[in-house]
Amino acid sequence: MNNLKFEDFTKAISDYVGVDPSEITRDTDVYDDLFLDSLGLFGMGSEITETFKLNIPLSLVASISKVGDIFDLLNEKGTPVEE
CB count, 10 Å around CB of 78? Predict the structure, then answer.
């Protein structure tokens, strides 16, 4: 398990989508609330990978849409990026 803080995670998402971090909760839907499409989700995933230096399989992310679920997945299954 990684030791990510949800506040740091929402800040990274906020920086990518241009929404105030206080508006992003665990229940925020990346499609309905943040208006991302699949390409936007891929871009956000790249931003998260770059920020936290953790990878998660895109196949797992594609099946979920809530910010809290993505955070949990990254925190529990994220693997360090090899540089």
Answer: 20
